[in-house]
Description:
Chain A is α/β, with parallel strands linked by helices.
Amino acid sequence: xSRVIVASVGYTKVGDHxxxxxxxxxxxxxxxxxxxxxxxxxDTIIVGNMFSSQSARQEHLGALxxxxxxxxxxxxxxxEAACASGGVAFNVGYHLVRSGEAASxxxxxxxxxxxxxxxxxxxxxxxxxxxxxTQFIGAxxxxxxxxxxxxxxETYNVTRDELSAFPVIAHQNAATAEHAQFRKAISVEDVSRxxxxxxxxxxLDCAPIGDGAAAVLLTSDKLVEEDDEVExxxxxxxxxxxxxxxxxxxxxxxxxxxAARKAFSEAGIGVEDVDVLEIHDAFSVTxxxxxxxxxxxxxxxxxxxxxxxxxSLKGRYPALTFGGLKGRGNPAGATGLYQIAELxxxxxxxxxxxxxxxxxxxxxxxxxxVDTTSVVTVLARR
Amino acid sequence: xSRVIVASVGYTKVGDHxxxxxxxxxxxxxxxxxxxxxxxxxDTIIVGNMFSSQSARQEHLGALxxxxxxxxxxxxxxxEAACASGGVAFNVGYHLVRSGEAASxxxxxxxxxxxxxxxxxxxxxxxxxxxxxTQFIGAxxxxxxxxxxxxxxETYNVTRDELSAFPVIAHQNAATAEHAQFRKAISVEDVSRxxxxxxxxxxLDCAPIGDGAAAVLLTSDKLVEEDDEVExxxxxxxxxxxxxxxxxxxxxxxxxxxAARKAFSEAGIGVEDVDVLEIHDAFSVTxxxxxxxxxxxxxxxxxxxxxxxxxSLKGRYPALTFGGLKGRGNPAGATGLYQIAELxxxxxxxxxxxxxxxxxxxxxxxxxxVDTTSVVTVLARR
Lengths: 382, 382
């Protein structure tokens, strides 16, 4: 077994990239990640992407990227698990290096969402749900999460303003993050009074649509030697009952819970050891249920804790430190790699205005569907 | 490192499955593969699929299948590399078991093609090629291969009847294969006089469109003990310059050549040790260039050798032993797993009327695009 190092990272700004193709974005992020290590030619390239076939009529992204990077011959393929595609691609790359099969792997997450109109994007994202049941009855990914938010508020007496806390934290941090889609702070009132899009979710409860790519170069510890290297301590995937309506307990994110349990166990750490975390805040309710499933908050207290400052940049568990999905943006298949890149910045002390002080251990949680697939990854600076 | 065993296989008949969804097909093949080992619960599920989003408006196949198999919690994801999706999924599963990360992995290839009309299917398959260049100018996957066939015939003086040899072998073997799409022998004249579809390729040069799923259960040798176990000796992926028109030498399948070189090397065998082979005969010309790239035939002699009987069931290198892509069928993302399942049948001596005598070592070659991605896998009965 090799120790696995995140040797470098690269990413584009998230937003509207009308002048760039999906390949352009992937190449830009990849070149930035490869640049600091000109002598490393990755043994494998893995692309995390959800719906390039819908947005760009393009499959076969792995070989396409290998060729564009002048890395012809390199094994390359795409990994897909809805919005967890990036996290799962990272997980596969991690295992290839850890096992010694590869000395280095370039993992790239990319999504082009803005070439579809809003309705098409909503339909594309809803392909994370069952075509035969959930899609068939007309539920969208947004409306499913809205129903979950209502259940969450009613079960735990969560107020509208408490639910607004995570988006406020996200935008607060995005305001000073150069690569974020929305660099603008918002107030609790802004969220709580923004237009309803699917009752009770309001516009500012929901992560936006945007284009972007993020890449990380994973290497064996034998290949790169640095004093402050960022090591992958663990990366675990788990799955939940596929459809929300089939679950006995819709408010427990059991995929996240199980992935976190395994990731903590393999890393040999507990919740209290985490210094910085990136969670999958696709919706305000998703953020709340995520921190609860991993044990950072008690059941029903995620949004309340956020409201009390626990997840703010100077709180006990700084989260969404460059804006999360809500503020930095959520280019579906790229999101999981943005999370890793951002943890890397934090652990390296390169967080600029968003730096979390004295952080050594970081955790990323990346979801596909409504906690249908979840990937939890733990990184540490040595 | 664990030795990796193909413990069992399962598959559906290839053809028109109007009454079954993509999930139904994947479940059917998976259950067959899992049945012989009721005590093994796979540690990971990997799905090879190319375009479920186009044909079934369904992404997130990994978690969907895990849930349908009552394997909730199991890590699950999809792998895509065009028509090599199945072979690449197998490769990823192999590495997870080999490294000890998983004791068992269920790898399932599935594609539902017949729910699209023929034009839509052609467009979906052409997503293996560059959207910005090749697709943009209107070339289809078929027309690219037609141009390659013309170049092949003109460069090496390959006659029309010689080019017809691989489809004849495929149908000869498919006639007695229960799971094949076209159980009908055809003659050289049938191929050479079938309707032109893209000059010089004729209807019977081209693998058909069909639905299907194939699954294999991979395990560590510590988990399953049998006398005649089928072991994976090696599995290697390589890539070529993405677009055919950019290649210096279009007639050398360099991805296949490199993947085979590495696969032979790691398995510690040479061409002459292979007893049975499954090649990616998407078109007659593809079969010819594939055997040439791997060294079974000299450059320019693949089709001629096929014509001379080298690749027939009782020839020196029996190929397409249950019909290959042409006769058994080519459900894109499933094809690579059908190949593995068929080699398993041969090596176990369960080939029925299609059994290759005294075979111990089998090789599968699975391509995405025009040799853009290639996976070569070597199996052996111990």
